[in-house]
Design brief:
Layout: H1 2-14, H2 34-41, H3 67-72, H4 75-80, H5 92-116, H6 126-132, H7 138-160, H8 169-178
Helix pairs in contact: 5-7, 5-8
Length: 179
């Protein structure tokens, strides 16, 4: 499976105009081994696990803390704390929100690796699964997602508003293109 994913990634990198984005889905019925497969994949390649299951679910792995509410939140609330901004029928702001989310997540992960001395040599990447899917200390994961949320909101705010606190579409559009 890891080899197949690497081949798909190579294919994407060599033919980017053919594909929408470098992602894949893992879909099958409950109890068919999706989480087990992801855990095994995490031994060989970096993996950030985010579980969106309902809060009352007892499934494995548990629902990811804190980040779910922010992911589901209307992007207008992230930016200006109100829905008074016009509709975003083209999903432009949602696309920008998730581009910024992924950028900040990777930045915060690099900070975590550096600050904790979590070298990615020898031991592989399995610690990422332990940290994101089976955390021994929920507070560290909660703090991580809190810093991602704060960083993403700050970056969105900085890039989307001008000095008078008005939406700056040119800057926002340029930011989305950079992401």
């Amino acid at each position: 499976m890891v080899e197949t994913l690497i081949n798909y990634m190579d294919c994407y990198c060599s033919e980017k105009d053919t594909y929408v984005a470098p992602y894949t889905s893992l879909i099958t019925s409950s109890m068919m081994g999706k989480s087990r497969l992801l855990k095994q994949i995490s031994n060989h390649t970096p993996l950030i696990y985010i579980c969106l299951r309902p809060s009352r679910s007892t499934g494995y792995p548990k629902r990811s803390p804190r980040i779910i509410q922010w992911i589901r939140q209307d992007v207008r609330l992230c930016l200006i704390k109100s829905k008074s901004m016009s509709r975003d029928d083209s999903n432009f702001l949602a696309t920008l929100k998730f581009s910024v989310f992924f950028e900040v997540t990777l930045d915060k992960l690099a900070e975590l690796i550096s600050s904790q001395g979590l070298a990615i040599t020898g031991g592989g990447f399995s610690w990422l699964w332990d940290f994101f899917a089976e955390p021994k200390e929920n507070q560290k994961l909660d703090n991580f997602w809190g810093s991602v949320i704060a960083g993403a909101e700050q970056l969105l705010y900085e890039k989307c508003f001008d000095e008078e606190k008005n939406i700056n579409c040119k800057t926002t559009y340029g930011m989305m293109l950079m992401c």
